[in-house]
Batch of 3 targets.
Target 1
Amino acid sequence: MFTFRANHGVVEFRCQDTILKNALKKHLTLHDDKQDRDVTFYTEEEEFPIGLWNYVRGWLSKHEYIFTATGLPEIVPAEVDPYILFTADDPFELRPFQVTCVRKLLSVPHSLVQSPPGSGKTEIWAATLKHLNSTSITIAGYWKHVEQMYDRLQRRHVPDVGLIGEGGIIHRGKNYVAVAATVYNAIKHGDEEITQIVKDAHTIGFDETHHLGTAFSWQIIASRSNAVQRHGLSAYPFEDDANPYSNPNDLTLIGLTEELVYKLPAS
């Protein structure tokens, strides 16, 4: 039996130890308790980020291992208010398929949503963040995507939107939008404030997950996050067969978020 000690509980599962040990060696430091034959994996800070659990779970499932998990955070489904983005200046109402997608995001801890252009991806994400009403960080690969997300979340009155640009923190807040490379470099070089923002966020979102150029940095960011809610959004997540990160069975992408759970219709 293997035991993962996490911030949100203890995760236990069974499998062949040598295979898993080799698979996780690059991520974790192994401490073998010979007395009870349990093996406990710790990060450097002696805690197991929830972000790595999804990656490990995908690895175990792919190799058809039988395992059990206990102590993971529970997600309590919430009712979706279609008028949550409604204001006097902008009487916006979520469309029925957008309500369905937000309800799905609120009911699962991990997801990957395919959202074609014109389907209102940002409104779906804004409504999700407003319903969760907690801390979050939304990661995008390029500055123009970060700017667009930042402006749209503000326009939809997501509370206290913060901004992390190419040079670091521009505006502090509760719901951050950030450039992937900046966050990755902050983690790599020990920037305590940005690293703590990533660790403390209840929700982490990955925008435009099909971009290969930032996939590795996203993987590092996800592995350092303790976020309970982890969601990816992309117009075409599986569009390029030559792109290893566009494969719906690829564990790097699934490890960040999850298998495709909802495909939005084009408007």
Target 2
Amino acid sequence: MSRLEFRILGPLTVRVDGVAVPIGGPKQRALLALLLLSANRVVSRDRLIDELFRDEGVESADHALRNHVSRLRKILSPVATDDPRLVARPPGYLLRVEPGELDLDRFERLVAEARASLAAGDRASASESFHAAEALWEGRPLADLEFEPLARVEVERLEELRLAAVEERVDAELSVGRQLVLVPELETLVAEHPFRERFRAQLMLALYRSGRQAEGLEVYRHTRELMSAELGLEPGIELQRLERAILVQDPALNGGPDGRASVGAFVATTFTVDGWEEPAADGGPWAGAAVATLTGTLLGCTARWAGRLLRGTGWWLTVGWVDCVCTGTGACMPVNTTPVAATAAAAIVAEAA
């Protein structure tokens, strides 16, 4: 039996045994796109007519829809089986797509595999799965239909799926020390998506870890100027915290036990100081920093950890790592199955000091 492939992560394409087949004109391509975006689900005739033939009379639109459906069936005939691919099913039509035939399905499966690897702490495997998912893209989704009204919302939704996967893959690669390779890619991503702050935070961190602290701070300055001029806004809290952490060369920026940066991971809402120890006297990076044991609220649970606070500055130089957060009754639960960091807001730490 012939193998059928549908591709929407780029120009709309149908392939039979690896060879692209003609799909037809714009209306027919748009019809196929609508059916693929709701693969294995019924798309009503009313919706198809409204999207494709809204300027035609009722009878003319119904006749045109039937004609285009008939032509699509002929295109799919080389792979027809006892169960037809395009079927009439009240109140409209359903396009049957088998597992692995639609590139969007393969993309989502690979991203799910990557996230499962992240949850298991296997960042190298996660990176490989993310790369495989990204390799399925051949440009903007539905590139040849991008300016059709029916496609605009879906194009933005699909593009957001891709960018979210890229962000997660970059995080995974930063956690295994690939910052030198990531810097050029992140510079391109920031240029293409100037208001996407997560890419800017990742670029700042990659530059810092590459020994380019000043350039990382320059990224923040440019971000602040751009957002102020274009949007009348300040950068988000994550970028602000990251800039402050770079200024004091927070060791947490180099990653915790699992290689992950802790800045901005979680924000504690309340803190009390349980005790102080004498400042470190080894002349190292902790010279002059007192050791405090803090209790704080994290995501509705309570956690306790030790950290070092430089008196008079209001800033953490490091944070403690915890494997779980615990409720007031003593019941504990893991956080993302791996250690996480808590970073205190400056005002709260300053008050504790």
Target 3
Amino acid sequence: MDNEKTAEIDLKVVLVTQEDMSMGLKGQKLVSNSVPIRIRSLSINDPISAYALFYYSMTGDRLCDLSALGVTPDENGTTNEDVVRAVAKYTTSDEETDLFGAYRVLTGEDFPDSIKYKSELDLYQQEYDSDLTSYIIGKLISEDSSSNNYGKLFDDRDHFLGTREGDFYNNRINFVNHFFNNKYGKFPTTVQSQTGASKMWYARNLGEVGVAADFIFNLVREPTTPATFGSAYTYLPNMASHRDRYREQVEIFKFLEQNQAEDINKAIADFLVDQQALFNFLWADARTSEVSEHWKESDWFGWFSDENFPWIYSIDLGWLYSQSNSPNNVWFYSEKIGWFWTTQNIFKDYVGLTEYQRYLFRVRPKSMGGWEGSWSLVTLPAPGSGLTEILFYDYGYVPLL
């Protein structure tokens, strides 16, 4: 590893197919060509490093290509909150987005916190079977007229419809203005108001409450109609879309709930600590230095720093990379040693080792393809030994793949 904490490794993919003797098929091993790549050390707190961790936590899927999201974190100015919000837009279901949008349009407010959102989601799913129209109607005819900040609507009372389009026209205009303002925080233009009132009239077969619910439904869903030329037609002229914002905020609420926090920055910090804990489980016996929380001492591994996880700096072996989480099965990568395997029982305690010797199993690519490995004795520079570098004695390489 150089001073910029980067290293070059050869990457290849090994695929083993499943055996099916009923079909007379034997398992096969397919090995790709080696591709040299350069990797670099990043702290787990770095947004670029943590991006895949956030994605997996929020979606349950592995992230193989950042460009698939249309968002790539850069090294300048991207924060972990930016990353979480970027992922959020691609993970929330339409059902959850509908609920957030309906609550906003009906009340003129966003959910105040994740607790209120979770409570309303339970109601939406259990009482209304996640049906948006039923939920809107339920709120419009609720005995609690404050639920929509408009008032209770009745099926047996004229609100918006008469025998002619002009009947109750102002009522429809006022209704459109009220709920448009709830959604956007501003009143619609005259054209938008008139278009909304006309759409309510055209849907008159739905009845008094039906036309009201239909208008709110479309404010929430934001449907568009394809245009012959140019952009698609929105439900109301030049109606801006807020669906991405709804999606983002819903996923933030879920992220907060998952990490049992009320503030996104605290949730992110707690999440990263939990991820670090997965790594630290490898050092269950490690003691933290009084000088720095990142410097630790393990009985079987010695002194090391995990500040740049998943890269660690070992006093004995230098920079190492590892995402193993059991001291009984540990893989490391070192630019000097290559890939090697060891356990807490043999690393320092193998039979016959001195204080400055370590025991491990090294692997390396074969010249004709595949891998080979050898048990190796590592001798560290000891005081007064005259050694200035680590010595390796390989007992003999044997083919692995």
